[in-house]
């Protein structure tokens, strides 16, 4: 059998093992043989001669989160060791490098991030550290005029915490420089740019009867190389499993429903009796099940509450689960959803490819031609920037923008603290967690997203639109979303009242057990935080749709949408300068 036939046979073996691996949800005994089959395939590919497959530059923006970053890089190293894509050259994996875009403000954390870059370079992953000095040096080579609407304007002594969108745009300029250098030095080398978040890992989370398992079961680089080879795509996006990719600002209503369901399931039970765990997979895929307003995205809302799976090992009692659940309540304010975990659902990667409409900025890949697409409206620092970009890509690229079943594992909080390591706009003081800034960025991000969706149907951004048409669209979307947000606040207030009544019912066993005072304090802090941030008539942040705030936001969004054409021209000029400068 010749080498080509041996490679084809090994690819068939991989396919057979993959089918066996997922034949019954997850067959754990097949995980290691499946991984080994890919390593054997790589050995055969290495015998074929020069490897013409794509080289990946993994872009990781990070801001003051060295613990998340360490876990992310470690998972990348494990991914490379597990599947061996591209093999090793001079001690490092040849076809996988990292661009670490550091947006940190804390000097100690900057030092930690630099140290992580050195460490992982030593153990097998080439890391190009792209810190503040390197970012400023790059921007100084470009005209100051024109890029403000893309990378923002920042004082030189505070060039940090720019936000993920502006940091990514600056990193993409670095990618353009890298691409130009590779084209000059290695004309046959093909690059793909893979942008992820530091709080993600190269794993999937699979639901199992005992609660779930995280594992390296996807050969991301192998499949992405194939997708870009076998089709005309320019941009491919995956999703995330684990913690939802959205803000607590749009999840509080359904989580309160789940909290009520948890208390309702145990209040009439013996506190010492075994907690009744929910069965695996009661809700199916649960697309957008974490979102309070899934209908905005074309999904049906869930009619039933999700029941909590207690994480205490063994056969925990109702009392043990009450305590353990209470410890996760305020993690919700940091982005964890204790009840509506997103699980991996198997579908073969080639069969999963379909036209996309949303970019998951923490998990998307693009080729050099797509470098012309920066993240729009970045200086507004709005949430939903990925879906907004996705609507534009769908309008202009069509089938050149696709999604595939290549999710990454998302973990917003640290196991030790049950809090996020760093979240912009989230203020924590003792037990009080204030989401005012994040809630505003979420609301106005939604206004921008659904305005762009309507404007795209009218030909934007390929066709310039009248300023009046853009303004009318913004006003209409703002009015509609304001009504939805007000209705949701009213629903949250009603569920809070119900939660207080259930929680403080004197007949319930948790109010007669002094050992549960700590857990009850956790519940009380959670109720206060939800009241402060979400409920109608709260003493906390004013409603994000307050009429007095809209005129200023309207003008900023209007200017950004109308100014996109000029931003695109400035971006193209910057790319051309970087291309010429490298050649020189």
CATH topology of one domain: Spore Coat Polysaccharide Biosynthesis Protein SpsA, Chain A
Mean pLDDT: 90
User: What would you call the quaternary organization?
Assistant: single chain
Shape: globular
Strand numbers in spatial order across the main sheet: 5-4-1-6-13-10-14-12
Estimated helix fraction: 40-55%
CATH hierarchy: architecture of one domain: Alpha-Beta Complex
Regions with little confidence, pLDDT below 50 for 5+ residues? none
Structural class of the helix and strand makeup?
Answer: alpha/beta
Number of strands: 17
Major sheet: 8 strands, mixed
The level 1 CATH classification of one domain is Alpha Beta
Termini separation (Å)? 49 Å
